[in-house]
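The protein record passed on for reference:
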Amino acid sequence: MKKVLVLMTTVAILATGSLSAQGQQAEYPNKPIQMIIPYSAGGGTDAFARNVIRFSDLADDIVVRNIAGGGGKIGTMEVVNARPDGYTLLGHVMAIAIGYHAGLYDTPPWEDLIPISSITLEDSAISVNADSPFKTIEELIKYAKANPGDLSYGFAGVGGTTHTVTASFANETGIDVNLIPFSGGADSRAALAGGHIDVMSSQVSEIIDMVEAGDLRILATTGSERHYLTPDVPSLKERGIDFVFQVWRGFFAPAGTPDEVVSRVSDSFEEATKNEEFIDVMKKLGYQIEFRDSDEFLAEIKRNHEEVAKISHLLKAEQ
């Protein structure tokens, strides 16, 4: 009789614990979620993340925290080392898929983080000063081939997306240019506008105001087709150059985060992408919406990893 009583008590305790765990999962989130952005407030990734959150049903539950420094590494590692319970997440840009090859991280991102979803894509631009003699991308390439090492080509941040698009473009077209890294996009834009460098890679949205003001001229963009903000500017692909480069932005959780938590956040952010006001905001920022769930996002990151591996020696050479 005592054995039966003990057995029944044990079963009851286990059942209660199981129901309690299910209840906790169903209640997620039941406390504030910390969204780490590894860059300064006001930047592209910060604006992107805050808008996704604002239009999601988790808006009241998520608190954004900016931890800048180390090319995004400091904030990223804060999430990597966090408890995998869904209450510390990461908003990041494609640079995280590049950092391993640039020597920023010791392991590929999918070993330490779970991709939740990616939301947007953004084309890069290859631009010159408005007074530059180069009127087309073909003219620039022809000159660079005839004068190896003569052109100064600026970009923002060693091992970042603009470094990658610069090195990839030079590698694809077979040109030899003098790569000039700057600490940030504002510095590289100022250098190009001031005539201190010959050409620059950036995101389209970062320079559209300077183009409209007559300070800069975009020779080509890196999407599969023309960018809607610059309909008169050809894409590299359109000009017969087999090169497409689009920067994604998305979200991550620490490795070990429960699948149901990842799905809950992913579903919330996917719903945000269907909001007409959100779509309008993203369009004004220069982003196109292309939602990828966790599995699709992981596949894209691994594809990026393989592509960047081909030019990793160029990224490390500039450090």
